[in-house]
Amino acid sequence: MSRPLLSAAGGALLRTLLARVDNERHRIILTSWTTVDWHSLTFAGERHRASFSVTGVDALELAARWTEGLEDADLPLGRGRFVADLTVTANEPQPDGSVRIDLEALTLDD
């Protein structure tokens, strides 16, 4: 049996992230996404790693606007899920003018 490319929590996280730049979301390209189950004694959830390419003539400005305050933002996922931790691990301009953004996030089931 195959698994969907994104889990329910992963899909909700991706939609919430892209909603931060709703009218320019077409300029943010998902290049990789991995999800692994995560458990502690009291919580269950998933750990996500994602890479994006921000494109366009003002990619640096869009990348900065998209990630500004992201680590402290309240990101609603709905259906009893929430983002417990999110870190921008890379924000790197590329030779072609795009910007590579890498994120790591922990989503928990309420």
Low-confidence sequence ranges? none
Structural class: alpha+beta
Range of helix content: 10-25%
Strand count, sense and barrel status of the largest sheet are: 4 strands, antiparallel
Q: What name does the CATH topology carry?
A: STM4215-like
What is the arithmetic mean of pLDDT? 94
- Work out the count of structural domains: 1
Give the strand content.
35-45%
Number of strands: 4
Please report the number of helical segments.
2
Pattern of helices and strands: HEEHEE
Spatial ordering of strands, largest sheet: 1-2-4-3
Distance between the termini: 27 Å
Radius of gyration: 14 Å
Q: Return the CATH class.
A: Alpha Beta
CATH architecture field: 2-Layer Sandwich
Shape descriptor: elongated
Describe, in plain words, how this protein is organized in 3D.
This protein is of the alpha+beta class and 110 residues long. The chain has one domain: STM4215-like (2-Layer Sandwich). It contains 2 helices and 4 strands, in the order H-E-E-H-E-E. The protein has a 4-stranded antiparallel sheet with strand order 1-2-4-3. A hairpin with a 4-residue loop joins strand 1 (28-39) and strand 2 (44-54). The chain is elongated and about 45 Å long. The mean pLDDT is 94.
